[in-house]
Prior knowledge:
Blueprint: H1 3-39, H2 46-49, H3 63-93, H4 97-111, H5 114-132, H6 141-165, H7 169-177, H8 182-193, H9 195-210, H10 214-217, E1 228-231, E2 234-237, H11 246-254, H12 259-294
Antiparallel strand pairs: 1-2
Amino acid sequence: MSTSARKLTNSVMLTLCMLGAALAILVLGLVLLFLMSKGLRYMSWHLFTRLPDNVNYRQGGIAQSIFGTLTLLGLASVMGLPLGILGGIYQLEARGRFASLVRFFTDVLNGIPSIVIGIFAYAAVVVPTAKAHPGQTAFTAYAGGFALGILMIPTVMRTTEEILRLVPFSLREASLGLGATRWRTMWSVVLPSARGGVITGIMLALARIAGETAPLLFTILGNEFFETHKVAGISVPTLNAPIDALPLRIYNYSQMPNADLNNIAWAGAIILITMILVLSIAARYATRSNLLEEK
C-alpha cells in the first residue's frame, strides 16, 4: 500500500471515529434537552423540601423520594462495596478452577436483568419477612438495599480487579522483598496505589444502580411519608418499613392521568439525571487526581 493510500485510510478511519463520537454526544444532548424542555419549568425548591400533596399536586414535593434514593444507595454500598472489593482482590490474586468459576459467575451476574434480581430479592427477603411477621408489611428499605447491593457487586468486582492489575508488579516485589505478607502488601501498597481507580469503579456502580426501578417494584413498595421511630428521644428514619425512591416515584407519576403529576415526574427525572451526573463527574475527578499523583 502506497503512502498516499495509507494516509487516506487513516483519514477515513479518524473521520468515522469522530462521527461515531459526535453521534453519541448528539444522542445524549438530545435526551438532556428533551428532559429540560419537559421538566425544567416545574423545578422548584419545594420539590426538595416537601412531601407529596394529594390535594394540590403542584404544591407537593418529592423530598421523601430523594431521601429514599440516598438511603438505598447507602444500604447497597454497605453490602456491595466490601463484597465487591474483596471479590475483586480474590479474582486478581487467586488461581485455579474456582477462581475461574468466580470470574465466570461474576460476568453472568453482571448480565442478569435487574428485574430478575428484584424477583430474587422478593423471594429471599420480602416473602420470609412476611411469614416471620404476619400482619406487618414486608416491603422495607433493607430489601431494596439488598437488591441494589447485588446489582452493585459485579461492577465493583470487575472494576477493582482491572484497576489493581494495572499497579506495577515492581511495587509488590519490593514489598514482598522487605518481608511483608501478601495481604499486607495488598492492603498497604497495592490498594493505596489504585485508590483513584477503585473510587471510580465505586462511583460508576452507584451511578448504575441509582436509576434502577425494576428491583424496587418488588422490594420497597413506595411511600409518600417519612417513617420514623424514636431512639433516645430522637426521631430517626425507619428502615424496616416501606420507603420511596426517585425512579419508583417517576414511574408511578408518569402512569397517572394527571398533568401535574406527569410534570413532577419530568422534574424528578432531571433531579435523578443530575445525581447520576454528579457521580460520574466525581468518578472522572477521582481518576484524574490519581493520574496527577502518579505523575
